[in-house]
Design goal:
alpha/beta, twelve-stranded mixed beta sheet, 10 helices, 12 strands
C-alpha cells in the first residue's frame, strides 16, 4: 500500500526510513492523478519519542493496497520535551486545526503517564474532547496501550489498576474468537510486546455487552478489545514496537537508576548485549491491515462527510 504524503510532509524524517525499507511512499502529485479517494487517517501521537513512533505506525499502515493519507496531531495543552519544536511546528497540527474535518480512521497512541489518575494528566480534558469528537467525526478509532486504557475509561467507564511492577517484554497470547475480522489470519497463539505499569481487567470489560475481548495472555492479561460495531478498537500492548524499542526503554531506565526488571522473553539468555529476535512483526502487520480493511475501508462512507455516530 502506498503511504500518501502531503506536500507539507515531504521532509518528514520517517519518509527516508520507510523508503530505505522498500516501502512505497507516494508523493502528493502522483496521488492526485489516481482516480481513488485515499483513506484519511489521523494519528494522535502522545508518545515522547514522536519521530520513532511516527515511523513505526506509518510502517504498519503500509501493508495493504489502499492509499492512506495521514495527519499528525499533538495535544495543545502539553508541551512535548523530547521532540524539537521545529519538527512539531512543521509536521503536526492541533485539534483546533482538524476538528472541522472528518476522518476514516484514527490512532491514539500510548503515553508515559500511566501512574497518574486519568484526571491528573495535564491534557486529559483535551483528550476527552478529542475522544468525544471521534464518535461523530471518525469512523473507527484504534487505541494503543495507555490510549486503550484511556479510551475504555472514557467511553465505557472501565478502570485501570496499578501493577506491582512494570510489565515489560514479549508475551504469548491466544485468540478467543478466530471469526472476528480484526484477528482474521492470526495463529491460535501469537506473541506481542507490552510495556506498562497498569492494566485493565477482564471482569470489568465483560460487564459491557458492547465490548468483546478478542485476545488475551495468561501473563499480560487482556490484550485486544473491540466494540461490537467496530467503531472503537483497544489494544493494551505495543504491536508497533521495533526490535530494539524495549531494549532502549530498559537501558534508559537502567541509566536513570530505576533498577528495572529485565523484559521477559526478549533478550537471548537474558543478556542485554545480545540482539533481541523480532518475532511479533507479522501479527502486527496483520492486525493493522485487518483494521484498515475491515473496519475502515470496507465500512466508511465514500463521501467522508456522511460519517456520523
Amino acid at each position: 500500500m502506498p503511504i500518501k504524503i502531503q506536500e507539507i510532509q515531504e521532509n518528514l524524517p520517517a519518509i527516508e526510513v520507510l523508503e530505505s525499507e522498500n516501502i512505497f511512499v507516494m508523493t502528493h502529485q502522483r496521488a492526485i492523478r489516481q482516480d481513488i479517494r485515499p483513506l484519511k487517517i489521523i494519528l494522535l501521537n502522545l508518545m515522547p519519542t514522536k519521530i520513532e513512533t511516527e515511523t513505526q505506525l506509518l510502517r504498519l499502515l503500509s501493508n495493504t493496497p489502499l492509499q492512506v493519507e495521514v495527519d499528525l496531531m499533538q495535544t495543545a495543552t502539553h508541551n512535548a520535551k523530547n521532540t524539537s519544536a521545529s519538527h512539531l511546528n512543521t509536521f503536526y497540527k492541533t485539534f483546533d486545526d482538524l476538528k472541522s474535518k472528518k476522518f476514516d480512521g484514527m490512532i491514539i497512541t500510548g503515553a508515559p503517564v500511566e501512574k497518574l489518575p486519568f484526571e491528573e494528566v495535564d491534557y486529559w480534558d483535551e483528550l476527552c474532547g478529542i475522544m468525544a469528537w471521534s464518535r461523530t467525526n471518525v469512523y473507527s478509532t484504534l487505541h494503543i496501550c495507555w490510549g486503550a486504557q484511556a479510551g475504555l475509561y472514557y467511553h465505557f467507564g472501565v478502570p485501570k489498576y496499578s501493577l506491582e511492577q512494570k510489565l515489560s517484554g514479549i508475551f504469548r497470547h491466544r485468540v478467543l474468537d478466530a471469526r472476528h475480522p480484526l484477528v482474521r489470519g492470526f495463529d491460535d497463539n501469537f506473541w506481542a510486546p507490552h510495556s506498562r505499569y497498569t492494566e485493565v481487567r477482564r471482569e470489568d470489560i465483560v460487564q459491557h455487552p458492547d465490548l468483546e475481548i478478542l485476545t488475551e495472555s495468561n501473563a499480560a492479561g487482556v490484550h485486544i478489545v473491540a466494540a461490537q460495531n467496530g467503531r472503537q478498537i483497544f489494544v493494551t500492548g505495543h504491536e508497533e514496537y521495533d526490535r530494539n524499542t524495549l531494549k532502549k526503554e530498559y537501558l534508559r531506565d537502567v541509566q536513570k537508576g530505576l533498577r528495572p526488571l529485565m523484559p521477559q522473553n526478549y533478550f537471548p539468555n537474558d543478556d542485554p548485549a545480545q540482539e533481541p529476535p523480532f518475532f511479533w512483526r507479522s501479527h502486527a502487520f496483520l492486525m493493522f491491515s485487518n483494521w484498515l480493511n475491515y473496519f475502515v475501508y470496507q465500512n466508511t462512507p465514500y463521501e467522508i462527510g456522511n460519517i456520523t455516530e
